[in-house]
Amino acid sequence: MIQDTGSESDSLVTLNDWIEKACSNGAVPVITGMNGDMDTVGSAISLAASNPNMMACGLHLGRISKRVCVELGAPFRKISNSSDLPSNIGGIIIVDAASESQIGFDLPEGIPKCIIDHHESNSWQFSNSDLMIKMDVSATTEIIARYLINHSSTTLTEPVRKLLLAGLITDSGRFKHNTKHSFTTAHEILSDSEIEYASFVEWLESSEINSSERGSLLNGMQRAKATESGDWSIIHSYCGTLEGRLAGLLLGIGHDISLVSRTRNGETRLTARATKNATSQGISLAEIMTSIAQQIGGEGGGHAGAAGWTGNVDRITAESSFISNVAKIPRESK
Ligand SMILES: [Mn+2]
């Protein structure tokens, strides 16, 4: 694998070389993580806009991504497995996914791949022609924005800028979980554009929740239970849909960590959020989800303050594993 070890601009040069070579050899699908969130979809479509041989594709568009793509007329190809990919592939780019299983289908073998990601942990396997571009940024769209600014500034049309900004705003929790450098990136995306920031945020966040979803969120809130786990307070609940949103709402009550689980067809999914205070005092939800996977199977990962796990055990087993992992972590006073 070609691991980028140099400066950020060196990494972007390496990325540009990889992309040029791959695109000269054939089509280059830019594949999204299967959650289809705004960061992965925004990254894929914006990057794909820089070369006619690239095409953004993936299994699924999340709620916000779907609306944004429709309203911006952004091209995205929905696929169901690798046989839907073009036949003359010069390389495959995967954006904002911490492992192959997060794409939701098996990649064709023997094709050079490039991973562009910002997750804390990842479990990709590499061969010699592969490239990993990983940066400690708040959203993968930040990496794409910097790549386009340095190497393909004409790609930065108004819709592309909106996609990049939408990914950054949603992944950073509207600039609550970001590094200070994200403001520079946001400034660069907004410079020389007609985007009016405040109206853009309002447009982005005006997602319609229907009455049954509202009912589901409300039930989830009514079922919530608070638990002390070692040095930490956890609020946890379960629901059938919109786990991320429920976890965010519950965290607003003031506990260190919120945990929401959902079980469907024998598969349990954990979604957790932690306050900035908790992460700076020692909590990494990404590490907790990874160790749950080591202990009871399944797959987990994410970021220090937002992470998830999926596996084939019942809800109580998964929740207990999470709570006991949290208990082991000492609170470091800072
Ligand atoms: Mn992301």
In short:
This protein has 334 residues and is α/β, with parallel strands linked by helices.
Would you write up a description of this structure?
By secondary structure, this protein is α/β, with parallel strands linked by helices. The protein has 2 domains: about 1-205, inorganic pyrophosphatase (n-terminal core) (Alpha-Beta Complex); about 220-325, Diaminopimelate Epimerase, Chain A, domain 1 (Roll). The chain is about 40% helix and about 20% strand. It contains 12 helices and 13 strands. The protein has helices at about 10-25, 40-50, 65-70, 140-150, 160-170, 180-190, 195-205, 210-220, 245-250, 275-280, 285-295, 315-325, and strands at about 1-5, 30, 55-60, 75-80, 90-95, 115, 130-135, 225-230, 230-240, 255-265, 265-275, 300, 305-310. The strands form 2 sheets. A 7-stranded parallel beta sheet has the order 1-7-6-5-2-3-4, covered by helices on one side. Strands 8-9-10-11-13-12 form a 6-stranded mixed beta sheet, with helices on both faces. Strand 8 (about 225-230) and strand 9 form a beta hairpin. It is globular, with a radius of gyration of 20 Å. The two termini are about 40 Å apart. Bound molecules: manganese (II) ion. Manganese (II) ion binds near residues 39 and 118.
